[in-house]
Amino acid sequence: MTDGSSSSSTGLRVVVSGATGNVGTSVVEALGRDPAIGSVLGLARRVPEWSAPKTTWAAADICEADLTAHFDGADAVVHLAWRFGPTHDPVVTWRTNVLGSIRVFRAAAAAGVPALVHASSVGAYSPGPEGHPKDQAVNESWPTHGWPDAAYCREKAYLERVLDGFEHEHPGLRVVRMRPAFIFKREAAAEQSRIFAGFVPPRTAVSPKLLPRVPDLPGLRVQVLHASDAADAYRRAVLRPVRGAFNLAAEPPVDAHLLAELLGVRSVHLPVGPPRALLAAAWHLRAVPASPHLFDAVLRLPLLDTTRAREELGWSPARTAEETVRELLAGLRTQEGLPTPPLHPPRRRWRAGSAAA
After folding, report:
1. Contact (Cβ atoms closer than 8 angstroms) between residue 153 and residue 146
2. Which residue intervals define the domain NAD-dependent epimerase/dehydratase in the entry (predicted)?
3. Smallest Cα–Cα separation from 326: which of 273, 261, 238?
């Protein structure tokens, strides 16, 4: 698992921000299992009572903590920390996601960290021009200006511009930008329900009997990726002397027909207008956290060409898109989780000794 990389006798020291979430828990596990890694420091606003190999924890808010002290002596920093809400107050998310990320970048440079691996996103990419085929995948040279109405895309795209200047100012610091598709795993299903729907549906709600049709909306075709496969790419980016951006996604793209097949129901064609209007009304009433602006962005996302990750990282996803979506659906049915603050399951307390803070 070392990818041919050299390391000291004690192994590399890696610091991971946002280490208790969907991707972070998988990344610290992947790093901890690699013999080239000597230790992992997981940073999070709230320290969990969940453990991973070779991992210690520190409470740190990236907007306030002395990050340079945490990064001192590190061989790499993996920056995953991100705040998805409140979607009605973009100033709050901007403070964490943009200003907090800039603090991470500057602290990594100040501490003399040799490598910074940053979690960008498919959401950073610009929509395709008029006439661009929806099934034509784009590589890492595609413009990254995001969809400006959606705060998530706007923040991811802004950090791409920040890193352009940062790399110019710090040529000795190896910067890697990961641009993954939507990332899922069973243990994160409840968290993602809370992020997008504002609640976790009852187990019986994830049933074909209650969802007899899947809406087939024009342009709604996305890519997904299992969190463990994303974590493997991050691990490889830490160990290999690579720079620049890498697209990450599994095949095939997920559309209404595939989702209907997985659920055992049928798809039905619908125009975008009615569901978009319904979502906008619910969002303005604060009934759901997912904004109509993010919905607009998803309809315009390009598909990702992952050739560079396969060739330069030696990476390929172990799970297909179908397997990943099946696991997400299973997670919604079983309502599992992990004893970390972001991934805690609904209406359930962990037993003493394993309870999350």
Report:
1. yes
2. 14-243
3. 261
Amino acid at 281: A
Q: Which residue ranges of the chain lie beneath pLDDT 50?
A: 1-9, 348-357
| In the block, residue with structure tokens 């997670």 | 331
**Separation of CA 6 from chain center:** 28
Rounded CA-CA distance 352/355 in Å is 6
Written as one string, the DSSP assignment of 27-53 is HHHHHHH-TTEEEEEEEESS--S---T
CA Rg, the chain, in Å?
20
- Do 45 and 17 form a contact (C-beta atoms < 8 A)? no
**pLDDT (0 to 100) of residue 353:** 32
Whether the full predicted model's pTM is greater than 0.70, yes or no, is yes
Please report the pLDDT score of residue 2 as a whole number: 43
Residue from 90, 103, 21 nearest 62 by CA: 103
Bridge partners (DSSP) listed for residue 76: 14
pLDDT score recorded for residue 347: 60
pLDDT in tens, 45-84: 999 989 999 999 999 999 999 999 999 999 999 999 999 9
Instruction: Provide the 10 A C-beta neighbour count for residue 352.
Output: 7
Task: Domains for the chain: give ranges and CATH numbers.
Answer: 12-264+285-334 (3.40.50.720)
Query: Distance between CA 233 and CA 152 in Å, rounded?
Result: 22
In whole angstroms, give the CA distance from residue 156 to residue 142: 14
Which uninterrupted H or E stretch holds 146?
Answer: none
Nearest-angstrom CA–CA distance, 65 and 92: 17
Q: 165 near 209, Cβ under 8 Å?
A: no
Q: Please report the pLDDT score of residue 303 as a whole number.
A: 94
The SS3 of residue 9 is coil
- pLDDT in the model for residue 200: 75
Q: Cα(50)–Cα(40) distance, rounded to whole angstroms? A: 14
Measure the CA–CA gap between 341 and 19, rounded to whole angstroms: 11
Distance CA 42, CA 206 (A): 33
pLDDT 10s digits, 269-285:
999 999 999 999 999 99
